[in-house]
Design brief:
Number of strands: 0
Structural class: mainly alpha
Number of helices: 1
Largest sheet: none
Shape: rod-shaped
Distance between the termini: 41 Å
Radius of gyration: 12 Å
Number of domains: 1
């Protein structure tokens, strides 16, 4: 259970990070 939650959280953070990076690139 804990592993699943951790994986989900990590995935969410990774997705958010990727979104931020792409957003910066598109903006610039």
């Amino acid at each position: 259970m804990i592993r699943r939650v951790l994986a989900h959280t990590l995935g969410s953070i990774a997705r958010y990070s990727l979104f931020g990076v792409t957003g910066r690139w598109i903006r610039v």
